């Protein structure tokens, strides 16, 4: 996925390039499709933060929420051709990954139950405690006395 550097003049630059692509009716409006992809990935500042950590976005604006608003507004009033969408395979792969039940369960487990390091540490400690209790019980039952 291409890397995007977001600066103060990025919105006006992208809007002009999208307008040029829309007016020209080019065979492959790459920037329009890229903005549509980013718009589908970004809904909040946390999404921008994750994309910055993945080095997909370089945020020079400083505020993640303003980058989210930028991408959410950029795609308004643009036309996408559904026939030969450049990122169609990426969309299919993401949707296929999202629809797998194991991935949904893993995400719920991570976000709901293991959202802090302490939650994981306490789960690990409880598991060890149960394991040691089971070992001690088995030694007590099967010991030759």
Any overview of this molecule?
- This protein has 145 residues and is mainly α.
- It is built from 7 helices and 2 strands; from the N terminus they run E-H-H-H-E-H-H-H-H.
- The chain has helices at 10-24, 30-41, 45-53, 64-74, 88-99, 101-113, 117-142, and strands spanning 4-6, 57-59.
- It has a two-stranded parallel sheet with strand order 1-2.
- The protein is elongated and about 90 Å long.
- The protein starts with a strand and ends with a helix.
Q: What letter string, H or E per element, gives the SSE order? A: EHHHEHHHH
Q: Which percent range fits the helix content?
A: 55-70%
Q: Give the mean pLDDT.
A: 87
How many DSSP E strands? 2
Low-confidence stretches: none
Shape: elongated
Number of helices: 7
- How large, in whole angstroms, is the Cα Rg? 24 Å
First CA to last CA: what distance?
Answer: 67 Å
Structural class: mainly alpha
Please outline the major beta sheet.
2 strands, parallel
Strand arrangement in the largest pleated sheet: 1-2
Strand content bin: under 5%
Concise summary:
The chain has 7 helices and 2 strands; from the N terminus they run βαααβαααα. By secondary structure, it is mostly helical.
Question: Which descriptors would you attach to this protein?
Answer:
145 residues, mainly alpha, two-stranded parallel ribbon, 7 helices, elongated
Helices and strands, with pairings:
Blueprint (H helix, E strand, L loop, with lengths): L3 E3 L3 H15 L5 H12 L3 H9 L3 E3 L4 H11 L13 H12 L1 H13 L3 H26 L3
Parallel strand pairs: 1-2
């Amino acid at each position: 996925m291409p890397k995007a550097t977001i600066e103060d003049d990025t919105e006006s630059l992208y809007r002009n390039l999208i307008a040029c692509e829309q007016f020209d009716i080019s065979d492959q409006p790459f920037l329009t499709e890229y903005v549509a992809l980013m718009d589908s990935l970004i809904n909040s500042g946390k999404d921008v933060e994750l994309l910055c950590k993945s080095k997909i976005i370089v945020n020079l604006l400083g505020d993640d929420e303003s980058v989210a608003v930028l991408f959410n507004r950029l795609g308004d009033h643009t036309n996408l051709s559904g026939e030969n969408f450049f990122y169609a395979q990426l969309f299919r792969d993401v949707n296929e990954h999202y629809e797998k039940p194991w991935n949904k369960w893993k995400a719920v487990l991570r976000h709901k139950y293991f959202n802090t390091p302490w939650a994981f540490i306490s789960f690990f400690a409880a598991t060890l405690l149960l394991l040691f209790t089971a070992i001690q019980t088995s030694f007590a039952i099967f010991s030759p006395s």
